[in-house]
Design goal:
The chain is an alpha+beta fold. It contains 15 helices and five strands. The protein folds into three domains: 157 residues, Orthogonal Bundle (Globin-like), CATH 1.10.490.10; 110 residues, 2-Layer Sandwich (Alpha-Beta Plaits), CATH 3.30.70; 88 residues, Arc Repressor Mutant, subunit A (Orthogonal Bundle). Strands 2-3-1-4-5 form a five-stranded mixed β-sheet.
Length: 435
């Protein structure tokens, strides 16, 4: 590597000046070290394995790491022996392949570049030990020979680490794009229905279809503050929900657009939805979550997603400020079936509730009380306990609500209860309702 690459101000000091005698000695020593490549490879490999845990423990990765180290050391000694500049060298095939594989596994580029720096340190230490013990090297030339070795190896490592880092970034972007496309395509196929090869789908998605799933739709309203990493916010929100649900397994999350992501959370057979789940989530990022019910297998994957989509429709129609709504919320399963035609559903609610449908603080109290009364089987005592109010207050509110309905509860109870649920979900609070 006698002919060093061109340098610009700011690159740091160039290689030290050397005499032909120094270069001849360095060439000779490089030739003598070449047969020791396997030994040096093992020394560098063992050193890296103890210093960089991210490099992984899979046999295929470790084999590639060893081959990459060997290829780089062989190339360095070949270049030193014959005076070849880095720009005229061919990077080792194994080094490139190792960089590609790390990119595909999501291991950081920092771990890759750091391996080159630490490997350089270990190789130079071994070379120094060899030079100081070499009887054929005149003592007065040893410092200059070693300094030249340091300069040349540093040039090579700088050149090579830039190449593998660039290759890593290119491979990572391409791999992520291909993987994302494959995952989205697989998800669409599952949602459409038909036969699904669960094992093949799991390999593509990195998520098992045989488990019990809760599908999630995560979204932000268009008025939400813009952010550079929308998927990152959605991922954090879905993962936080999974943790709050006690899900020990990984989640499947894919981006739909800048405002929406789809997710699936694996839950155990014993898991049941609790209305308090939303209260345990941080809503400061303005991310809203719509849950489907829990179902099993590929069909459950599809069904829970369809439910979550309908729940989102309800939330958007009612401009729900809640961080989380679920298909398992009281009345939501029924109301979500109305979400395909919200305007028609609102008209039906008005026809059932009459003046009670009009938005006012008093009506809101009366609707809430009447719905709780119906949920507690027309028991004033149970309703009072649930709402922490006096029984006479409950009776008063119920009587007013019934008078506004213009009908008795017994003759149309099912429709009244459904209409009250629908009003709570698909009517925008405070919005005036035209007659």
């Amino acid at each position: 590597m006698v002919a060093s690459p061109s340098r610009t101000p700011g690159d740091g000091p160039g290689p030290t000046h050397v005499t032909p005698e120094v270069m001849a000695q360095l060439s000779r020593i490089s030739a003598e070290l070449s047969p020791r490549v396997p030994e040096l490879t093992r020394s560098v490999y063992e050193y890296l394995a103890t210093r960089i845990a991210e490099l992984g423990e899979e046999p295929t990765l470790l084999d590639l790491l060893s081959a990459s180290i060997a290829g780089n050391i062989e190339t360095i000694f070949h270049a030193l022996q014959h005076g070849i500049a880095p720009d005229n060298l061919e990077p080792p095939v194994a080094a490139y392949e190792y960089a590609r594989r790390l990119a595909q596994r999501g291991i950081s580029v920092n771990a890759l570049v750091r391996a080159y720096r630490l490997g350089q340190q270990r190789l130079l230490q071994s070379a120094y030990d060899f030079i100081t013990a070499n009887d054929e090297l005149p003592v007065d030339l040893a410092p200059a020979v070693f300094q030249r070795l340091v300069d040349e190896v540093s040039e090579y490592i700088d050149w090579m680490s830039q190449k593998v880092a660039l290759l890593y970034e290119q491979e990572r972007e391409a791999w992520l794009a291909n993987r994302t496309t494959a995952r989205e395509s697989q998800v669409r196929d599952i949602i459409k229905g038909g036969d699904v090869d669960a094992a093949a789908a799991a390999a593509t998605l990195g998520y098992s279809l045989t488990a019990r799933h809760v599908a999630v739709v995560a979204w932000t309203h268009h008025s939400a503050p813009e952010t550079v990493d929308d998927l990152g916010r959605f991922t954090s929100a879905i993962n936080a929900a999974g943790a709050a649900m006690g899900s020990p397994r990984s989640r499947l999350i894919i981006s739909r657009d800048q405002d929406t992501a789809w997710g699936w959370i694996t839950v155990p057979e014993s898991w049941e939805y609790e209305e308090s789940l939303g209260d345990r989530l941080d809503a400061t990022d303005a991310v809203h979550l719509a849950f489907g019910s829990a179902h099993t297998g590929a069909e459950g994957f599809r069904l829970s997603h369809q439910e979550a989509m309908r729940v989102q429709n309800v939330c958007v129609a009612g401009r729900s400020p809640a961080a989380l709504r679920s298909h398992d919320d009281p009345g939501m399963a029924l109301v979500s079936l109305m979400s395909t035609d919200v305007e028609a559903a609102q008209d039906w609610v008005r026809s059932v509730l009459g003046p009670l449908a009009e938005n006012s603080e008093a009506n809101a109290r009366h609707r809430s009380t009447l719905l709780t009364f119906l949920r507690h089987d027309l028991s004033y005592t149970a309703t009072a306990t649930a709402m922490t109010m006096h029984k006479n207050s409950i009776r008063y509110r119920v009587e007013i609500a019934v008078s506004l309905l213009g009908t008795d509860l017994g003759s149309n109870r099912l429709s009244i209860e459904a209409a009250l649920y629908a009003h709570s979900y698909i009517f925008v609070p405070g919005e005036q309702i035209p007659g």
